[in-house]
Every structure is written in C-alpha cells, then in structure tokens.
Q: What sequence folds into this?
C-alpha cells in the first residue's frame, strides 16, 4: 500500500530532469547596466538591459554591443542570441550640427533573438524632445508600438555593406510587420502634428553600390555645409560633390521597397510667423487627413491613396474625398538622370525631355470643394468644386502615352462679374450664376492599323448644352512617338482624317442665348429665333454653296436653330486613305472640301 507513495519522488525527479534537458545547456539570465552604443550621428543608450535565455555569458554578450570590440557589425549580429531582452528605458539620440533629437522608449521588449533576426518587439510608448531646423524646441508623445520579423542582419548589410562594382543583389525583407497606436508632436510656435494608428508590412531593401549609412552621413554633412553658406552653387568642387551624391542616392531607388501600410487620423496645425503682417497674429493652416494608404492597403491594392483631406486657412476652407494613383513610377526619370549624371562633366540633358517623363499610370481626384472669401467687398463667398478628375495613361512609347483618357466631371465654379469680363455679364443676364461643367477625352493609338482613334471628345454644362465628337485618323505611324522632333513632325503631317462624328445637344443654352439677344434688341424671343433660323438658312447656303453636302448641313443647322434639340453630323472621307494635309493645301475654295467627304446631318 506504500508503493505508490514511493514512486512519486522518482517521477518528479524524472520530470525535472527532462525539463532541464529541454533547455539550452548554457542559457543564462543576467542584467547589463549603462549600455551605450554610438553609430555615427545616432547614439543608443539604456540604463538597464535584462537578458534572458542567452547562450552567452554577461561579458561576452556585452562585447556584442560594443562597436569598438574589433568585430564587424555582421559578425556581432550573427552571434546575438536570447529568448528575451527587456529595457525599461531605451534612448535614441540623433545629432546633426546644432540640431539634436532625443527619443525615449518605455518598457521595451524584444523576443526570440537569433540568427540575425528579432521575431517580435514592442514598446509601451515614449517621448520625444529636440529642435526643429529653425532652432525652436519640439516635444512629442509616442503611443504603444509593436513589430514582427525584423531582419537585423539584412538591415545592417544595407547600412554598412556594399556590392562589388557591376554586380547586384536581390532585394530582401527587412521588416514583416509594424504597428504604432499613434503619436503627437508639439513644434512650439510652428504648430502641432499628430497621427493615429499606423501599420506597415513587407518592407524590403537590397545592398547598394555604397553603404546607405555612409551615404546618409555624407548627405547630412553636405546639407549642413550648404546651409552654413559654404561654397557657391557654381563652385566646381561643390557641383561635383552634389553630382556624386545624386548618383549615389538615385542608385537606391530600386533598392528599397516600402511594402504596404496605412496611417490614420493625421492632424496638423502649421503656423508661419514670417507670413503674418507686422503686429498681426499669424494665421494657422489646419490640415487633417482621415487615412493615407499605400500598396495592398490602398483601395486598388497597389499605388497610393489619400482619403478625407480637410484644410482651412486664410479665411478659406475645403475638403477632398480622395486622391490616388496606381501604376505611377519615377523609374524612367531615375534612369535618365543616372545616364546623364554618369557622363563626365555633364548634368541633366533636357533636350530630349521625353526621357524625363515618368510612368503615368492612373491618377484620380474625387470630391474637391473649396469655400473662399468673397473676391470683392459685399460679394458672396466663392465656392468651387470638382466631382471627379481622372487621368489614365496606357503604355508609353518614348515617354508619350499610346492611349490617354482624361475625365473631368462636375467642375462647379461661380460666374463673377467684372469690368473686363463682358462674357460674365451676359451669362449673369441669362440667369447663369454658376457653371457645372464636365469634359472627357479618350484617345488610343492602334499600332497594327496605324490609326489614332479619337474615341471621344466631349464638353458639356449641366442645364446648358453638350458637344460630343469622335474621329479616326489614319497613317499614324510609330514615328509620331519618335525622340527625333523632325521625324515626329513629319509623321504628324502625314496623318489623314478618315471619319468624324459629332453631336450637339441643347439643354436650354440656345433658348437663353436667344432670350438674351431679344432683350438687348427689344424684341420677342420668337421673333429673334425666326431671324436666327433665316440667317442660318440663307447665310450657310451662300457660304457653303449648292452641293448636296452643303444643302444637307444647311437644312440640319436651320432646323436645330428653329427648334433646338439634338444636332448630329457624320462625315467620312471618300478616299479610303482619308483626307490628308496635302488634300487640304491644294483646295483653293473652302467649299471644295465638301466634295471630298460624304456628309450626313440631322436635327431632332
């Protein structure tokens, strides 16, 4: 009956032995005091570091944090290992000339540090103190932050390593994910700025031809020298230094990938004391942005988007629902700059400006409204708005898009009467106090057929009228997109017009015009309409001649004036090759052009 009791101590001993064997044999827990590391312009310090589960002893671990130990940064990072590192306080100081910024993080913890990686990290928050470029003091508060998957080794390689000349390395991940709950900065008299929750994912970078750390140090030194009033802009030594710096910085363009992420609830209050009148209080500019997103977090799953922008200042205020782009890239610009700067004694060559056109992609603005103070004393406030503006560019050939779509919807603007603006006076007399305009252009070059399709050109005003046209141009060759301006000009002159379709819709503009002219003449609108219809019939007939096409066009226009509705025109060149510039130049009488086209016209 005592046997079970005798087995319990043995079982407990076996369990403890297995638990001990499951732990690293040399794992140690210890504390380091007054840790300090200097990296050029950056200094890290911690009054206390608590290390757990490290295979190194205290002094061996401390030597890894000593940049003067004789070991390279990569070698020290490879040996850095611990299950956890805690710091109640971690201070980061950045000094540049007279400027100094100190960021203090609280309750810092790093977990699973091994093989040059930190699996997880977090901080409960922190504070910031320093100076702005003008010497004014700034302070800030940082909320909690977290990260996952930090590759210390690759980060160090980007900062301190370089690839051999003529070689490249693939871009590798630096940080899998990071989050921050928010932060705020008080810039003193210059204003305040704050952000809400921010996230970022999949940051990556590659080693470049020059260590990024050295490059940034050089850039800061050059900037400080320039700000201190050093050599003049025309000094050859300074220009050569700036040129080398430009080449080095541009070389990192395709070496860094920012991944995806978003920033929410940005609020800024910016004050420029120099902009205020003497004795007057500076007028602040207030800006808020609900969300900034990029990469996979953007609505299009790529590119960039800014949502919920609001601004106010100088008595004006406004908002933008969204600004976004997809497919935009400075890649061609960077390539052209590197080519030009790489030639001895040369700078950017703008003679071939097409090389400096970026990849345009699609850009979009939606929901712009602006309320501005009255243009004159006693006048009404100025209200301007844009419903949507979008530019979509297709594949580019020598910088020029082979297809282009421009859309402008609901451009709303007031009509302001002025002494030098008689057109505005007439519009106001017609009861038009504001304009609501929309427009669209849609073009595409078809290489297989050597055609330029003008799919749509449209312009309209709400409650007024709308004009829409489409056309086809033939003999449009690839030379139109040539870098050679003379060759491109010859190609443009060789294009031919094959067809044109146009439609004019009246939504009340013609009636307003007739009523306004009748008022000026002291006549009835019906009498003025009859007069205009007669002028259209007789005037066009005398101008265009007696051809069948002229009669068709004259009849349609006269009917449209008499009863404004919809006027449509459809013209095609009789020649299969189209109507070219040479055909137009040889015409001695403009009416002869009607003999070279087939024309249909109608008014409804």
A:
């Amino acid at each position: 009956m005592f046997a079970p009791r005798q087995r319990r101590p043995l079982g407990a001993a076996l369990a403890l032995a297995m638990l001990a064997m499951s732990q690293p044999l040399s794992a140690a827990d210890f504390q380091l005091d007054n840790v300090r590391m200097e990296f050029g312009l950056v200094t890290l310090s911690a009054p206390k570091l608590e290390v757990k589960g490290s295979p190194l002893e205290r002094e061996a671990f401390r030597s890894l944090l000593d940049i003067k130990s004789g070991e390279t940064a990569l070698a020290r990072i490879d040996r850095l290992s611990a299950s956890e590192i805690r710091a109640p306080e971690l201070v980061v100081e950045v000094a540049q000339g007279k400027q100094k910024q100190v960021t203090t993080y609280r309750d810092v913890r790093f977990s699973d540090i091994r093989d040059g990686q930190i699996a997880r990290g977090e901080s409960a928050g922190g504070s910031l103190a320093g100076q702005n470029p003008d010497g004014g003091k700034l302070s800030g508060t940082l909320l909690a932050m977290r990260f996952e998957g930090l590759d210390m080794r690759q980060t160090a390689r980007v900062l301190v390593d370089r690839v051999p000349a003529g070689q490249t390395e693939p871009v590798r991940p630096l940080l899998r994910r990071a989050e921050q709950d928010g932060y705020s900065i008080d810039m003193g008299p210059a204003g305040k700025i704050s952000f809400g929750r921010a996230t970022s994912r999949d940051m990556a970078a590659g080693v470049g031809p020059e260590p990024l750390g050295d490059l940034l140090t050089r850039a800061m030194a050059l900037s400080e020298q320039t700000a201190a009033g050093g050599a003049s802009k025309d000094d050859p030594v300074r220009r050569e230094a700036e040129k080398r710096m430009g080449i080095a910085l541009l070389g990192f363009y395709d070496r860094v990938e920012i991944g995806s992420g978003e920033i929410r609830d940005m609020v800024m209050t910016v004050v420029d004391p120099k902009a205020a009148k003497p004795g007057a209080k500076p007028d602040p500019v207030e800006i808020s942005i609900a969300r900034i997103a990029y990469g996979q977090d953007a609505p299009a799953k790529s590119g960039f988007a800014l949502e919920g922008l609001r601004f106010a200042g100088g008595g004006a205020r406004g908002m933008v629902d969204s600004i976004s782009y997809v497919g935009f890239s400075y890649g061609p610009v960077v390539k052209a700059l590197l080519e030009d700067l790489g030639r001895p004694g040369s700078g950017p060559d703008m003679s071939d400006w097409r090389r400096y056109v970026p990849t345009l992609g699609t850009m979009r603005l939606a929901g712009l409204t602006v309320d501005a103070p009255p243009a004159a004393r006693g006048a009404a406030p100025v209200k301007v708005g844009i419903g949507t503006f979008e530019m979509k560019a297709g594949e580019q050939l020598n910088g020029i898009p082979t297809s282009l779509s421009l859309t402008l919807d609901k451009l709303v603007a007031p009509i302001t009467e002025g002494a030098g603006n008689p057109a505005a006076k007439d519009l106001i007399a017609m009861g038009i106090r504001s304009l609501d305009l929309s427009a669209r252009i849609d073009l595409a070059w078809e290489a297989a057929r050597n055609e330029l399709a003008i799919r749509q050109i449209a312009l309209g005003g709400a409650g007024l009228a709308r004009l829409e046209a489409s056309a086809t141009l033939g003999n449009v060759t690839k030379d139109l997109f040539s870098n050679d301006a003379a060759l491109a000009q010859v190609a443009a002159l060789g294009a031919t017009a094959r067809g044109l379709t146009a439609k004019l819709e009246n939504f009340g503009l013609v009636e307003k015009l007739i009523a306004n002219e009748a008022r000026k003449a002291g006549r009835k609108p019906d009498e003025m309409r009859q007069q205009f219809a007669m002028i259209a019939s007789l005037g066009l007939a005398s101008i265009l001649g007696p051809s069948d096409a002229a009669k068709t066009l004259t009849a349609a226009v006269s009917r449209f004036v008499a009863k404004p509705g919809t006027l449509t025109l459809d013209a095609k060149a009789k020649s299969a090759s189209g109507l070219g510039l040479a055909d137009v130049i040889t015409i001695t009488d403009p009416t002869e052009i009607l003999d070279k086209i087939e024309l249909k016209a109608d008014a409804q």
Summary: The CA atoms of residues 23 and 157 lie 32 Å apart. Residues 3-22 form the longest helix (20 residues). The two ends are 112 Å apart (CA to CA). The chain has 13 helices and 29 strands.
